[in-house]
Amino acid sequence: MESTDLTWRLLAKRQWPLALSLTGIAVLETGSISSGLGWWQVPGVVVICVIAVLAPRRPFDAALSLAFAIVCVALYMRFLGVILEPHFFFSGANISMTGAAMATIAVLVRESSRWRAVSGTVLVVAAMVGAEVLGWPIVAPEYREWQPDVRSYLFGATIMLVLAIGTGLYFRARDNERRSQLAASVAAAQNAERMALARELHDVVAHYVTAIVVHAQAGQLNREVDVLPAIASSGTEALTAMRRLVGTMRDGSSAGPAASSSLMDDVRSLAVESGLPVRLSFDLQDAVPQELARSVLRLVQESLTNTQKHASAVSSVDVSLSSSDGVLRLGVEDDGVASGVPVGGSGGYGLVGMRERVELLGGTFSAGRREPTGWKVRAELPIS
């Protein structure tokens, strides 16, 4: 048994135009009833209209119920010898019944599977044909000598059937398009979130893990150097960063540590943590927003991590930050010699993540070798 899981509130919001239309038609039909016996058509018409309005909740069940109700109404009206007024085809189906049948077919085609839509439509059409056949001999006196034009009758019935099916197919296509757009939006949002987490994981956690490996290797080369405090500190920072990332995935909080009120102090802290011979240069003439400062810290952090992983014999790393005319400029340059095997291997995502981060902020990014030795990173970011 299928169900579209529509709540009554959503159903009322969606179906009120149909309910209002069928009610108006039924009221007009009731007002035109001339004989007392003609009132016998009212209960059946009400049931049929109610089924049509409720059809979106269970389209196929509604089609079965509607077909059964139409046949029952036609049978008891024929048994009583009551004229259905006003006649749509001067026979057994009035306007409200026909409208309810068209609406139910449209909903069935829109929301049901193909075989259910076909079988349900066939049943409703068969019930309408049965109502016409059962009702035809009982006509108003003024039409008893009238002979119907079968071709016109079939043409009109076909037009209404095509209109009902076409309406259902149109809304079905719209629903499919809307679902496709929603799925694409969800996929894009999920991908963006995965990329953001990947960047944070690479920029933050990998930085501290790289520091651990570098200090451990230094300790192996020189047993007299006490590297345990540095390794412990880097390990603690790595665990803290991992906890922040887990918090991000669980409750959507911001990943990674937020920048403090002073971007320069944060860059100095990164330089000290890296253990590299970093020379700093600052010329910030504009206030830097927190989100932008956080991204700048990630760029500096990743640049220093790359120097640790990929360079040897580094005597200086120049980190410069300046701003003017609403543009923040970052430069990181080292004079190291490219090492054969990067520390901990290389996933090749560092520069990609940095470029993505800068481009998402509307800036420009470049990185490459410098002469005679070393590596340089440049980024320009709009402050506003």
Structure notes:
This protein is of the alpha+beta class and 384 residues long. The protein folds into 3 domains: 8-148, no CATH class; 179-257; 259-384, Heat Shock Protein 90 (2-Layer Sandwich). It contains 10 helices and 7 strands. The protein has helices at residues 8-31, 41-54, 59-80, 95-111, 114-135, 150-221, 228-251, 263-274, 290-310, 350-360; strands at residues 278-284, 311-312, 317-324, 327-334, 337-338, 364-369, 375-382. The strands form 2 sheets. A 5-stranded mixed beta sheet has the order 1-3-4-7-6, covered by helices on one side. A two-stranded antiparallel ribbon has the order 2-5. Strand 6 and strand 7 form a beta hairpin. Helix 2 (41-54) runs antiparallel to helix 3 and helix 2 runs parallel beside helix 4. The longest helix is centred in the middle third of the chain and has 72 residues, at 150-221. The radius of gyration is 38 Å and the shape is rod-shaped. The relative contact order is 0.07. One of its GO terms (molecular function) is protein dimerization activity. InterPro entries: HATPase_C_sf, HATPase_dom, Sensor_HK_TwoCompSys, Sig_transdc_His_kin_sub3_dim/P. Residues 294-383 form the Histidine kinase/HSP90-like ATPase domain. Its EC number is 2.7.13.3.
